[in-house]
Each structure stands twice: as C-alpha cells, then as structure tokens.
Amino acid sequence: LDNVLRALNRNSGVQRWKSPLPLRPTSGPAKAGETIVVTGVAPMLRSYNAKDGRAAGDLPTSGEIAAPLHVFNDSTRPLPVLILLTRDIVKGATLTALTRSIDPTIAPVVPLPTQREGDAR
Prior knowledge:
The chain is mainly beta. The protein has strands spanning about 5-10, 15-20, 30, 35-40, 45-50, 55-60, 65, 70, 80-90, 90-100.
C-alpha cells in the first residue's frame, strides 16, 4: 500500500521496525534465514536484515519476476534456497535456485608487505 516493509511483534502486534522500499512490491516478502527478500516490478531482488530492517543488498535478475519467491529449506543444506521464476520476451521463462555462499571469496595470493620478491622463507 505505501511501499514500506514493516516488522511486527508476533505476540503484541507492536511495530518493531519499518524500512522504506524503493520499489512497488509485486508479492509478499519472503523470509530466508535472517533475511527478508522483496520483489518488485524492477528485475531485482532486494534484501533486508530481519532483525532491524536495514538493507542487506540487491541482486539483479535475468528478466521480469514472473511469480512470487519460494523459500526451500532442506535439512541437508545449511542455508535456505530461494526459487525464482523470471521471464523475458526473447529468452522465455527461467527458473533459478539461489543460496548464500558460506565459503570465503577467492582472492589472488599476493606477497606480504614486509616480504620482497625473490625472498623465500
């Protein structure tokens, strides 16, 4: 109604936090772990921290979002999986499964600042 994401206390109904949305939502939010994911008319997933409503990041999609997000929790996986259906006028429909990586990002190995090239230790 007003492009605002709100969290309410389950017992009392008191508003815990609210966060303005930079988009018009196309469906209800989805909770994946400690993250709230919102979809809109733009080809983008917007995520928010479930504890305080702070923005947690954006993820561009390959086309227009064609259906509400589905969260898949599997006891064999440590993190939830988001199932996303997009459509493109040229490519057609695409089904994508997304999850967070728990591995650190791979970075090139560089010499230590105190180590000169050619020094072997």
